[in-house]
User: Fold this.
Amino acid sequence: MKSIVLYLLPLFGLLACKSSGVKDYEVVKNELRAPAYPLVTIDPYTSAWSMTDNLYDGAVKHWTGKDFPLIGAIKVDGVAYRFMGTEDVELDPLVPTSEQGEWYGSYTTTQPAANWKDNNFNDSSWKKDKGAFGTKINEPTAKTDWTTENIWVRRHIVLDEDVQGKQIYLEFSNDDDAVFYINGIEVHNTGSTCNKNAMIKLSADVVNALKKGDNLIAAQCKNPVGNGLLDFGLLVQKEMHTALEKTAVQKSVDVQATQTHYTFVCGEVDLKLTFSAPLFMDDLNLLTRPVNYITYQVVANDGKAHDVQVYFEASPRWALDQPYQESVSQIFEDNGLLFLKSGSKEQNILAKKGDDLRIDWGYFYLVAEKNNVSVNIGESNTLRTNFVNNVQDGQVTTGENEKSKMSLTHNLGSVESFSGKVMIGYDDIYSIQYFGDNLRPYWNQDGNQTIAGQFHAANKEYDKLIEKCYAFDKELMDKASLAGGKKYAELCALAYRQAITAHKLVKAPNGDLLFLSKENNSNGSIGTVDVTYPSAPLFLYYNPELAKGLLNHIFYYSESGKWTKPFPAHDVGTYPLANGQTYGGDMPIEEGGNMLALTAAIAAMEGNAKYAEKHWDVLTTWTDYLVEYGLDPENQLCTDDFAGHFAHNVNLSVKAIMGVASYGKLADMLGKKDVAEKYTAKAKEMAQEWMKMADDGDHYRLTFDKPGTWSQKYNLVWNKLLKMNIFPDEVAQKEIAYYLGKQNKYGLPLDNRETYTKTDWIIWTATLADDKATFEKFIDPLHLFMNETVDRIPMSDWVFTDKPNYRGFKARSVVGGYYIKMLEEKLKGSK
Assistant:
């Protein structure tokens, strides 16, 4: 049953007051306790989340887990309540990581004696070199190349002072499984979770074991596949002063597609706080406008007027990769808007590439209308204390270094109800390097727009866009509920902003749209085809032009002659540098099938194959490769090979067959009847062979050569959605019936090898079901996982099905694949 909420929001922006002009907005409440709540969602760099149940229980964070400090507080009749973020814990390096200073460690890659982690162990026979240790080709912080499966590292450190009684943290980066020891005591085991610049607080026992003089930090790390990294150091907490200790009481949180709503009680005043990102895919200028809204509405809960001030404080860390970088902040006014601006001092544009990085070029902005608003730059304790004590020191117009915070205070006066807003945004100046050309963001593609202009437009259009956000959010929940049930709709709502803002939209020199994904929490690749493939349903559903933008760079790469192999590239670089594939291996059948199936899906959505016709020669080359090699794949990497590579992959074979069938369908749409008949017949022939080779009685195998195995055959979904009739319907239905007996508490495993799964593929697999009730049997455990997971991160797509933990990956665009069920319904309606 739907939970309907009526939200009240004044129609006329910042200075609406009392209760006049208030409009009711109907919202279908999202009951899901999200693993993380989206707050500010602009692109892979400007991405801020709350990873706690209450908005004030932890710091606002970037999707990587690094703090993006953003404090919110309200003062009611002189009493201050913090409703967002936490006050900073300031940390200084005690023992530097490789990013904070130079360090050396003794290491071995062969199993040492059991006492290797003890202080008195003799490591004189070990090699010695500079940390961090890792695969240097893909890990920019690695100083010593480590390419074996295992490594053991001993780091001797000298402490100049006694640290007993102090708060000490271990800071570490690991890829994959790592265990850390201090003076022989185990302090942390990461399990199979990879981390970058993560921190854990050391227990009192471990701190007491640290002595003035010589000490030892030891670590072991295992890297079964892919990149490796091991780095570690110690931080010490500085003395902390608290000005905003008292918190509001959070009453609710509700994630919608374009908005996240919070409600609080702050003494005699109720506060509603809404984060809005008007990401409407039918308007690309608006979609890429780098401005979000934070709306605050206060209503007295005792019917009386109260003196109210609202306070926001942001850190320069929004514009820095690492907190120790130098920054410059300033204040300026432009036509009635007050701007707080901050950026790195260096401004080295497009100088870094990789995964766990934050932007350190361009500028962060916090903006509000001038009326009754004051802005300041200064040390955080001073800013907060002045807010609490109602001290106005006057504006400080510039500030240097990360400790110069920016504050904005809105004095509402004596009110019973009031609504205001602040705007938050980022101007990255240049977004992407594309085969040597630095490209501006789409909103400023010609270089004739200004960020101030974008904020003025956002301010002017606020009422209209907020109203559209509410309408869009309700429509999405209604349509998704109709297609797949309320729990499915709640997952789709949470996926919407995550999927969109894991991309950057730019225009190529040849005029093509480039909607380039960042492979978040993986290897940082840009424009990865096997990330595009699962994410595409969202963009096919709302705007096929964006779906083309997911493919254009791959077509260009081959058609320009820069990529000469007879199958598509895996990627075009490492974000944000798209200068050619940087991934170490090819995925011929995987990427060929992906590109062909998505091109056919675009044609189905548009009702014509003009896009395919434009790229016909290269599509033909890729199809012929699939015809020759696709039925029984050789030992090659595919997107599901988390548990290792293997040959004769049955689901990969389905993808190849769907690719050949897609080409036949496109040929038919273009009137190439002979070509269509030839390749469609070939796809059907391959499917019949597949059925014989893969048959395992009541299901089909994981690999052709291994009876007693199974896997999700999610690639069959295109046979259903595009009505290809290459595989008989009973193939999918036999699989669905089998899968229902293989589910665990939190969902259907990817295959028989492990208990983990891919959440996007579960929904693709569920879409093979013939009825909504069966579809929901696959959705319910997945929804339960997201509701109960103990890992508070932006939705992961790689999770365990037998415990509430993620295996890897977070904040990735592939959750756009959740929209495959809605896409099916839309394709039905277009027939």
User: Anything to note?
Assistant: Residues 535 and 817 are 5 Å apart (CA to CA).
